[in-house]
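Dear support,

Our group has been running a series of protein-ligand predictions, and this particular one with oxa(dethia)-CoA is the one our PI (initials K.S.) wants archived with full inputs and outputs. We had some confusion internally about which version of the output was final, so please treat the block below as the authoritative record. The input we submitted was:
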Amino acid sequence: MKSIRILGTGSYVPPKILNNYDLQKMGLDTSHDWIVKRTGIHERRIAGDDVCTSDLALEAAIKALNMAGITAGDLGLIIFATITPDTNCPAAANWLQAKLDAPNAVNFDITAACSGFIYALNAASQYLNSDFCKYALVIGAEVMSRVVNWSDRTTCILWGDGAGAAVLTTGDKGHELLSSHIHTDGANGQDLQVPGGGSLVTPITHDSVDKGAHYLKMIEANASFRVAVRHFIESAREAARFNGISIEDINWFIPHQANNRMTQAIAKGLEVPYERFYITIDRYGNSSSASCAIALDEAVRDGSVKPGDIICMPVFGGGLTWGSALIRW
Ligand code: UT7
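Confirmed final output from the archive:
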């Protein structure tokens, strides 16, 4: 097995801020206090009307390429994790390729909801390990604001828009991706879904739109909370076990950011101080496949992560999907 290296990271969130008070002003039957107490979210970012997922990804990708010191033309592979692609066809990765001017890359999207970035890291590692290419760009990006029902207080408060990216290669330069593990349970994966827009609800009709089939739905959110916490904890333990280290040896946990109470429960379950978890949910909400990628980039750029630190990135998402990455920075 080759050593997989992260050469650069990047992230981008759109400038428009929607805070909890704005949601109240929009007529939603909620309160800032309820949202903060139950989720830890204070505000989230919302893409402009003329901005789509690959636009956010482009900004994050440029930053990652700059940090890596390579150009878009060097890329042989772009893997784009998203559940809100610009279009169902072509792939979001293809829209990004065109905007980046990366003609030598082969591209595809991954649908793994909030675990998407780690799925993409894992897939890119396999391609790099088999010498498919020298440089790969991995993206997690979402415009969740386009698929949430802004009159459904049980879902719309949670989500936000953004993008995170990483440039990977093989060799001995860069930050080592020590492992990545991914898991799927499709048999129990219906609790988070966007039923419309695919072949399940087809064709799109006035009736399906009137019924809100194109909106993201969360069924049994409390049950998925408990399942998520269990899988987050198991994923962190799996990463530590695989690498022959203890949970104590991990300097930073940079998990998918779904709910701050969830993160507190994970910290308690792992018996790790909450201060070792890097948190962005207060500012960005849950940006699905982008969330842990944005958090990683911010933790690197603000100096929280120091050279040699061990970073664990446990994730869980709809589908069901879960997994982890372990990185030595
Ligand atoms: O990214 C991975 C996928 N994400 C998840 O799996 C999400 C996991 N679940 C969660 O994060 C939490 O379950 C939620 C944040 C979605 C909900 O929090 P909760 O503490 O589990 O609340 P609840 O669903 O038990 O609702 C408690 C009460 C209900 O009222 P009643 O029935 O007790 O009268 C809700 O109707 O809070 C009400 N409620 C709200 N009140 C004010 C639900 N949403 C809101 C709201 N504002 N936005």
